[in-house]
Design goal:
The structure holds two protein chains of two kinds. By secondary structure, chain A is an alpha+beta fold. Chain A is built from six helices and five strands, in the order H-H-E-H-E-E-H-E-E-H-H. Chain A has helices at residues 19-22, 25-47, 91-95, 133-137, 164-169, 172-175; strands at 74-76, 101-107, 116-124, 143-145, 161-162. The chains are: A alpha+beta, B alpha+beta. The interface between A and B is medium-sized, with 23 and 17 residues.
């Protein structure tokens, strides 16, 4: 039995090329012109410190124009007395699809209204998928997500766990090195913004 | 025997049996709070209502206290019954705080289950809920949240009918009733008091040792046998489910700890109860473990220690073995198979009653505080655990032996799981696994054999006793 001759599959959107496209060189040059144009424009904007350069130097620099509903870093809300609103019911930890939230509950017999409180509240950002289900599940509005993302890149995955203290105290202004909201980069030629 | 119909099924039930029992025997579920198969029938929660056909209509009454009669036609899910259950649940939750988010019972709470199954509505009441005492200590072992209590009186009846301590009672009337311990402290001294935590259909009675430790759906029960005494009650050891294991750097120790112990119902041994010592197994099995093999108190490699023990045993002229009564039947059989008659083996008691402990009673607790004395004696005979004066090697398996009883010149090979001062006095010390790290069987004093399963992996430095004996019995230098 001889093998069937190979027939290339024809697709519905096969390009129809005339002689100009088939000549190859003109189209290649056109592509290079487009790429080079974008490169030159961004390079010019970056060198002269103008707005609109596409590159953001993460993590030194983070975007300031996150959408209002962006799901970034978690924030634990507080009661007027400063204690966390969390009652350690573990609903967020249970619903979390990546199982990154770990809570250790404590018992405070003196606080009749809130006898159960979180001793530890840990989120592993190396595995968090930022789905926001924890916020939906919380019966106490104790966990929310700020639009800013956490600045956590590093060499150590254990440094990507954030605990109760960070989640309670976190302020977006203090999170990144540059002022918040960021001023447009002003840099001299040859210097990084 | 009267014949009756429940939900369209013809059932034959012995005269005098209640509709509840007849339905359960036929596999028909009727909800209940206050009723319990082992306790008397108070009929106070009214959730087990069923409808009985009568002259074209239907009358409604509780199933737990209604004897069966000939030709009875019972409906457990008619329109009227559903409405009555719904109304009953409205009354039961009238003063219930519904604080499931912080309640340790949530997830295994009958009130929660029935609410979703039979009611599902918000409270119709406009009145403020009564406030009662929270976290009232009935005894050092039991905390009562009176707001959650639905006054089913199961706990009160338990202390009157099963543990016979009469330690609990009800105070006040109606929606101000409170469960309280009697003043003479008999509830605090009741060695079965913790059973009321399982009996409680809601989260009113709680154990301080499990309080807020974990949500119950994070935990998984592993069938086991309580090693606390010769009764060998079957228990469930609850520990973290592998899929819910903690990963935060300093919370991982919880993954391999027993969070709570509950009875595993077993009519042949313990029924649905266990004693308080069984509840504290986490302490007994969570003691500090021996850290590694030792030769005369100096740390050694496990394989080196095994080789040393092997050559000591092979060289001994009169070796004696003291066998653990905490070993499983499988380990004891492995010991016998490995050494045969070469060692003069006697069964020793690893644990003696501790001061303050209830030594023996008529309910469950036995005076012999070792789980497998019967199984060990069936293999090694009934000889007393004395050591002959001319013994030149003593192999001690398990804790609890006074080393002063060992003749001065004899070499000591010691197999033990725990961190204890004797470990350093042995010529060869080999750490071994414990009950939660292996599966096996114990035979209790009455000859009933119960199985226990493995919960946690064995620590790397410990040897598995079942396979260790075979390698100890090999001739030194390899071949058998």
């Amino acid at each position: 039995m001889s093998p069937k001759p190979h027939v290339r599959k024809r697709y519905w959107n096969e390009p129809e090329m005339g002689w100009y496209e088939r000549a190859y060189l003109f189209e290649i040059l056109r592509g290079l012109w487009i790429t080079g144009g974008v490169f030159a424009r961004n390079m010019f904007k970056w060198m002269t410190g103008r707005k609109g350069a596409l590159t953001t130097y993460y993590p030194e620099e983070t975007r300031f124009d996150y959408a209002k509903g962006n799901r970034g870093k978690h924030v634990l809300t507080r009661r007027p007395d400063g204690s966390p609103q969390c009652i350690a019911c573990n609903m967020c930890a249970t619903v979390c699809p990546a199982k990154v939230i770990e809570i250790e509950a404590g018992f405070d017999p003196d606080d009749a209204a809130h006898p159960k409180y979180p001793v530890r509240f840990e989120i592993d950002y190396s595995r968090c998928v930022f789905c926001g289900l924890c916020v939906e599940a919380c019966p106490e509005d104790a966990i929310r997500m700020a639009k800013e993302v956490p600045a956590l890149p590093g060499d150590d995955r254990w440094a990507m766990w954030l605990g109760k203290a960070e989640l309670l105290e976190w302020q977006p202004q203090a999170d990144v090195a540059k002022p918040y909201p960021p001023a447009p980069p002003r840099a001299k030629t040859g210097e990084r913004p | 025997m009267p014949r009756l119909t429940i939900d369209g099924r013809e059932i034959e039930a012995p005269a005098g049996q209640t509709v509840m029992d007849a339905a359960r025997a036929a596999g028909i579920f009727i909800p209940y709070f206050c009723w319990h198969p082992q306790l008397s029938v108070p009929g106070n929660c009214r959730i087990c209502v069923v409808g009985v056909e009568d002259k074209g209509g239907e009358w409604i009454d509780i199933a737990c206290n209604m004897p069966v009669s000939e030709g009875m036609v019972v409906h457990t899910n008619s329109e009227g019954v559903r409405q009555r259950r719904k109304d009953t649940l409205q009354f039961i939750t009238l003063n219930h705080p519904v604080d499931c988010g912080i309640c340790d019972k949530a997830g295994e709470c009958t009130l929660q289950d029935y609410h979703y199954e039979y009611n599902g509505e918000r409270s119709l009441s406009r009145d403020a809920k009564n406030h009662e005492t929270k976290h009232h200590a009935l005894s050092p072992r039991i905390v009562l949240d009176n707001e959650r209590c639905i006054q089913c009186t199961r706990c009160v009846r338990f202390t009157r009918e099963v543990s016979k301590s009469n330690g609990l009672g009800m105070q006040n009337r109606a929606d101000h009733s409170l469960v309280r311990a009697v003043e003479d402290g008999s509830f605090a001294n009741d060695p079965y008091s913790d059973n009321v935590i399982d009996l409680c259909p809601v989260g009113a009675l709680l154990s301080p040792s499990f309080l807020h430790k974990a949500r119950v759906w994070y935990l998984k029960p592993t069938a086991s046998v309580c090693p606390g005494c010769a009764r060998g009650c079957t228990v469930n050891l609850w520990h973290r489910r592998p899929e819910w294991r903690l990963r935060a750097p300093d919370m991982r120790a919880q993954n391999e700890s027993i969070d709570r112990v509950t009875p595993l119902e077993n009519p042949a041994v313990n029924g649905p109860w266990i004693c308080n010592k069984g509840r504290d197994l986490a302490k007994l099995l969570g003691r500090a473990r021996a850290e590694g093999a030792m030769l005369k108190g100096r740390a050694a490699e496990l394989q080196g220690a095994i080789a040393m023990a092997r050559s000591l045993i092979a060289a001994a002229r009169k070796p004696v073995a003291l066998v653990s009564s905490w070993g499983s039947n499988e380990e004891l059989a492995a010991f016998r198979a490995a050494f045969g008659e070469r060692l003069d083996a006697r069964v020793k008691a690893d644990h003696a009653p501790e001061p303050g402990e209830v030594v023996e009673d008529a309910i469950l607790i036995r005076a012999d505080k070792n789980p497998n004395t019967a199984g060990a004696k069936a293999i090694f005979g009934d000889a007393p655990p004395d050591i002959p004066k001319d013994a030149d090697l003593v192999l001690v398996w398990g804790e609890g032996l006074d080393f002063n009883r060992i003749p001065a010149g004899a070499k000591i090979v010691y197999l033990n799981a725990w961190l204890q001062p004797e470990n350093g006095h042995a010529d060869v010390f080999i750490p071994i696994s414990i009950q939660t790290e292996r599966s096996g069987h114990y035979t209790n004093f009455a000859g009933v054999t119960s199985a226990f399963a493995k919960c946690f992996p064995k620590p790397a430095q410990a040897a598995d006793a079942e396979t260790l004996f075979a390698s100890l019995a090999l001739a030194p230098g390899g071949g058998p």
